[in-house]
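An instance as discussed:

___
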Amino acid sequence: MEGFDIRTLALTSLILCVLLGVGSFVFARVHKSFRGFYQLGIGYFLFAFGFILIALRWHINDFFSIVVANFFIVFGLTLIITGILKFLHYPKQGFIKISSVLLVLFVVLFLYFTYSDENTSARIIVISAFISWQSFFAAYKTYRHVNPFGRVFTRFLAFSCLCSGVSFLARVVITINSAPIDDFMDAGYVHGLSMIAMQLLVITSCLSLSWSAGQELAQKLEIQATIDSLTNLYNRRAFEEFARKEINRAQREQTHVAIILMDIDLFKLVNDIHGHQIGDEVLQEFSQRLTDSLRPYDIVARYGGEEFMLLLPDTNEETAVTIAEKLRIKIAEPVFDVETSPRLEVTASFGVTSIQGTDIDWQQLVGKADHALYEAKNNGRNQVCSN
């Protein structure tokens, strides 16, 4: 097949590795929270240097086109696998120690089979065995990894590494059972296919980790869109989405739905006297006391600055008032423990309402709870009122 030769494959590998190396460096610079992409980028560039030296075979010294070129390739693969382990948060010290010893052995064997006992077939066996071992190791590690954000992608990478390991192991067996090779540049299709297997490994390593990182970013953005970062409760937008779904269900099934609107009493004074940092700590402990006191199916959100709202499915007004009273007592327990200030006593006021039937309207429900909360505030705070 025209164009299917070692020199052409080396040049295409060069272009591919340069592009992936640049892409990895850009990704690492933009998304600094993801580890391992710098190692990937360096590994791809070492691949590129190795392949360009192979493409220059017979035009430069054998030391560079054979020993240095192949060392760059196996060292580049070592860095790529190190990057994969770092991205997956695996310990990498053991792998680095073993690979360092094998790299030294690799250089010694390549020098020997290039100058002391020139043997192209032996060099092919040495580098193929090295790549096969590393590919199988990477396949094992990536397959075992449980990644909630990109399991499909890491399994895809594991399969790619496995295929690479099998192809290079097959190359070892074929080379041992074949006639000696005089010139690697005319080694034939089997060795050309091994270079294609290496290209596929390079591509899948970059794409799999990039896709996995992208999915993790999307998940984080989705969480940020629904969770209040200070209290780790649902924000208002997400809460209202849940509320509308629950109201639609209550309308269909003719069941009660109740809400409790809560407001921390005199919270502005906490900020004015103790500072906003203490105010944030109060909000965090307030949120924790709420979540510790709720039923599994209740939904709580930070509705405003110091306002919180609780959605109670299948709950009538009497039960909702009882729940609100328990929460009021829990919040009023001494004391709110903050790190940089004397302990604070905090109370809250509660407005409760419940509706049943087909005429449930979300804004109407919120308006009634708000009116009840206003009444609790006017009556002296730290109490529960219903409407």
User: Anything to note?
Assistant: The radius of gyration is 32 Å. The longest strand covers residues 256-264. The mean pLDDT is 88. The CA atoms of residues 89 and 130 lie 24 Å apart.
